[in-house]
Amino acid sequence: MTVAEVVDRETLSARVAELAADIAADYEGREPVLLGVLKGAVPFLADLSRSLGPRADIDFLGLTRFGVEGRVSISMDTATPISGRDVIIVEDIVDTGLTLSYLRGLLETREPASLATVTLLDKQTRRIVDVPLEYRGFEIGDEFLVGYGLDWEGRFRNLPSLWAVLDLAELQGDPGALGAAVFSTGR
Ligand code: IMP
To answer: Looking at CB atoms within 10 Å, which of 2, 7, 149, 186 has the fewest?
Structure first.
């Protein structure tokens, strides 16, 4: 199976801790809500929130994407009212930027005190809408990645590090081989 590890566990954990330190410094004295976008942001949010210390609430929302122009609607809403709160959207990856752009627009209508985004990964070269991105973990090219929350057809979110799929046709032909190849490396 042609896959390559692009970010290992140690590098992920060190970068997430740096992001948490940046956020903690910027939000000194405030109590932000980390708003994870399901399902891809779950591992990242779990690690980020534990590095952030006590002053952060956690909530989630689910999105449904429809149309090629990337429109989204909220399929599972937050439990926390965000009006007047400092909200930090937690994303796994920003690609074209369409999803994040729509999401920010939706959340702005709820009048948070402030709105920012932290994304683990930024596919900057593929951006088609200009969307503010306050914190990013890694800038990457346009390879297709799985692991640490990122999926291919719902699979591989549970891989502990990030892997590039070098041959999608090969993956489609034998989806089981990727997990086996990754876990056999002991990573
Ligand atoms: P955007 O609206 O184009 O920015 O899309 C962001 C969404 O595309 C992410 O939340 C992912 O679901 C998906 N995505 C983009 N690139 C990848 C990738 O390399 N692996 C897995 N999902 C990806």
So the answer is: 186
